[in-house]
Amino acid sequence: MGTPEFAVSSLKELIRAKFNVVGVITAPDRPAGRGRKLRQSAIKVFALQNDLNVLQPPNLKDPIFLNQLEELNADLQIVVAFRMLPKVVWDMPGMGTFNLHASLLPEYRGAAPINWAIINGETKTGVTTFFINEKIDTGSILMQEETDIPTSMDVGALHDKLMDMGGRLILKTIQLLMKGDYKPVDQPKKENKIAPKLNKDNTKIDWTDSLNNIYNKIRGLCPYPGAWTFMSNKNKRIEVKLYKSDKIIEQHNLATGKIISDKKEIKIAVSDGFLKILTLKLAGKRQMDTRSLLNGYSFDKESKML
Predict the structure, then answer these.
(1) Rounded CA gap, 121 and 213, in Å?
(2) How many DSSP H helices and E strands does the chain contain?
């Protein structure tokens, strides 16, 4: 059971290991793009390419879907980046239903664990498999695997790394369950760090924050959805997305958010240094590197980030 690209790696591993995948459950096709054409999920595209049986229930409690699911007679259900399951679904197979989560639970329960690990400046993260229960990301832990987060890594690179790790951990977890000699570890009820869904408010840059925190926010939202801010330039207020940046630790007396620019670079003054912008996107323009933007764009002396 899965929807986005992150789930595809796990399904690939199951096929490579020659497990009998009796069904793939994914989200219904959604209209997307300007033409609002129906778009298939990444997992559906891959499943059809491999002649797998695909179910796309709008409602997971629908009696027709539940009958179809029961008829599959699955021994085990595996969930990767799907949605919350009702008990009638996760309780169906004899070996249970386990989930792959892209964090070291109990830390970073929620919808965007990979983003928030980087935004919060973590140096380690990982993947966890756990049995599903009535609450989100709280079931008994089966296995975990840890990895480092380099200070220059963005969320796109970490996503791909955890995606591959997750596929391998799923195989290890199945082997553990097949042996039958395992003891799931209960998670503590409390959590220190959470991973809520990303929205317009929590992806906006706060220029009064520290240089390090701003830098981490930008790489934690690159390439998607992108950290954003408003910019004031030539008496215009423009929305800007920032994708890649660098840190310059340096004392100065400039106002927070002030833009310093020449024909080669753009720097933003913050409390403890400067943020050097490497890649950005102005509203109405394509994403580009700083030098390409400065070929046809200039800043006035009063320009600043808001």
Answers:
(1) 7
(2) 8, 17
The CA distance from 166 to 170, in Å, is: 6
Same CATH topology for 5-195 and 211-305: the answer is: no
**Structure tokens that stand for 250 in this block:** 């340096």
Report the CATH number of the 5-195 domain: 3.40.50.170
Q: Where are the domains positioned within the chain?
A: 5-195, 211-305
pLDDT digits (tens, 9 = 90+) for 200-238: 999 999 999 999 999 999 999 999 999 999 999 999 999
Alpha carbon of 209 to those of 21, 256, 269, 270: distances in Å?
Answer: 48, 10, 11, 8
- Which CATH fold topology does 211-305 show? Methionyl-tRNA Fmet Formyltransferase; Chain A, domain 2 (3.10.25)
* pLDDT on residue 181: 85
Q: Where are the alpha helices (DSSP H) in 73-150?
A: 87-90, 113-119
Specify the pTM.
Answer: 0.95
Distance CA 49, CA 26 (A): 15
Q: What is the pLDDT of residue 37?
A: 85
Q: How many residues does the chain have?
A: 306
Asked if 217 and 247 count as a contact pair (C-beta separation under 8 A), the reply is: no
Mean pLDDT across 146-175: 98
Tell me the Cα Rg of the chain. Answer: 23
Residue (of 97, 1, 128) closest to 57 by Cα position: 1
Classify 258 as helix, strand or coil. Answer: strand
For residues 82-107, give the mean pLDDT: 97
